[in-house]
Amino acid sequence: MAETLEFRIRLRRGALFSLDVAEGVPLSGITALIGPSGGGKTTLLRALAGLERADEATVRFREQTWDAPGIRLAPEDRHVGFVFQNPALFPHLSVAENLRYGARRREVKSYDAIVDALDLGALMTRGVADLSGGEARRVALGRALASNPSVLFLDEPLNGLDTARKAELLPYIGRAVGEAKVPALYVTHSATEVATLADRVLGIAGGRLTGWRSPPARLRAVVTSVTGGLMRVRILGADPGQGADMTLPLVARMGETVGLGLPLDSVLVSTSDPGRSDASLCLPATVMGTSGGLELDVFGQRVTLARGGPHAVGARLWLSVLRVLPRPD
């Protein structure tokens, strides 16, 4: 039986925003909390963690009461691992010391599995100032997990990173959370992050919960036309023997043709099949020429990328599209 985080929270911030929510969240795997900016995602997460004081709150996790009339458990006593939008690492400590800080909070003796899952071994002696944005995010997640939390809250942990860095980090997040066997609440705007990580999705807008939904399905599709940055694809269903694997940022039915926008900075070219990746779409392609850029045949459609490469005519390539955008017909 899944553990449940049950809450009833009301709070008001001036005349412009109020949060009024009640739900029981099954905390097995990763639950994505999605909604528009200013909708209450971060406020709800902070209120659950005890970082934001609510006007009225009843919160129970497992058999423990976190909030109730006359009761307000301190944040450190809720055993929540919190990953903020900003990594919030201690700048005067090394990576190893940041991780040890997390472990000391709960007297955890070993967190080697987390170091391995996040590939932090080579970073342990570095200072925070020497980390890239992606490395800092991995360390922040590692520090939160090193404390052996009862539940993990992630507030847009990839915020501020470019598309390629986000795609690199998603497998680390899924692997580390799975290794730690900790339930998680994950705040995001990204359909790709939801499709890659989430076991279930809870919507919120205007300070009110909008209900449960399923993560976007991985479907198979074939490209029917490409014009500039617009591609049209026909949905085949889920048969792995047909078409290309993709995650749609919209709802589509089998047999339907939909338009998708292709941001030019979101296409990666590889010489081997990446298999099941975190890309929204992975397309097999054949090199047709390189004189005017990289000219490719994709499902019988001619696609030209501005950047070329040492690829022979007839060579087999794969295009990983990290992000696609819905486009109306």
Task: Tell me the structural class.
Answer: alpha+beta
**Average residue pLDDT:** 86
- Strand proportion: 35-45%
Task: Name the CATH homologous superfamily of the largest domain.
Answer: P-loop containing nucleotide triphosphate hydrolases
Keywords: ATP-binding, Nucleotide-binding
InterPro entries: AAA+_ATPase, ABC_transporter-like_ATP-bd, ABC_transporter-like_CS, Molybdenum_import_ModC, P-loop_NTPase
Domain ABC transporter: 2-231
GO molecular function, one term: ATP hydrolysis activity
Write a compact overview of the structure shown:
This protein has helices spanning about 40-50, 95-105, 110-115, 135-145, 165-180, 190-195, and strands spanning about 5-15, 15-25, 30-35, 55-60, 65-70, 70, 80-85, 150-155, 185-190, 200-205, 210-215, 220-225, 230-235, 245, 255-260, 265-270, 280-290, 295-300, 300-305, 315-320, 325. It has about 325 residues and is an alpha+beta fold. The chain has two domains: about 5-215, P-loop containing nucleotide triphosphate hydrolases (Rossmann fold); about 220-325, no CATH class.
